[in-house]
Amino acid sequence: MKEYIMAEKYLSTAKVIDGVLILSLPDAISPVVWQMELGQSKSSALEIRDNGQNQFVLTLKTPRQDVLDIAVYTNRDLAIKALLVTSAALEKAQGHLKSSLTPPPNGYPVPALSLSPKAGSSLGALIKKILTLSAVIAGAVLFILLILFVVAKLFLSPPSASTVSDAAPISADEFLENR
């Protein structure tokens, strides 16, 4: 019961500030504040692992397959709650992350979390914009060609022969005599 009261008092929080994920995990067996720069690594994964001693470990799996323990929990629900809080912080930060261009110390990249499928869709958005722009330009060119065709038909065609009569010209005297 005491453990439940403590868990209610101390809750895990996560924030992303200037491209750095900051986890505050006071409800772990050994409370910890943990941070990770998100812009230096391609991808990594956070997961909950059972260590076989009735404890649940929030871990980070790096691109090199290293497994780093972040916090240990006696209750699986608390570990999952910490994972969900972290996920929510990353979702809120999506699109506001800055990638670091400086190389990591010792050549080993700081692991970063994969944000979501939407993060990779910027290429798709760029392709969609290019296709839309191409369609607009093609439509404008076709419209201009249509206008030029109509103008050419109106002004460059010879006058029609329907205004000239087929009869041979006659003199004024002949005209007056036939009257």
Task: List key phrases describing it.
single chain, 179 residues, alpha+beta, 3-stranded antiparallel beta sheet, 37% helix, 20% strand
Describe the structure.
The protein has 179 residues and is an alpha+beta fold. It has two domains: 2-115, no CATH class; 121-157. It is built from four helices and six strands. β2 (20-25) and β3 (32-37) form a beta hairpin.
How is the topology of this model organized?
Elements (H helix, E strand, L loop, with lengths): L1 H8 L3 E5 L2 E6 L6 E6 L7 E6 L5 E6 L5 E7 L2 H18 L28 H35 L15 H6 L2
Antiparallel strand pairs: 1-2, 2-3, 4-5, 5-6
Tell me the number of structural domains. Answer: 2
Distance between the termini: 128 Å
- Counted by DSSP, the helix tally is 4
| Mean pLDDT over the full residue set | 76
Structural class estimated from helices and strands:
alpha+beta
Number of DSSP strand runs = 6
Helix content: 25-40%
Order of helices and strands: HEEEEEEHHH
Provide the spatial order of strands within the biggest beta sheet. Answer: 1-2-3
Instruction: Name the overall outline.
Output: rod-shaped
Short description:
With 179 residues, the chain is an alpha+beta fold. 37% of the residues lie in helices and 20% in strands.
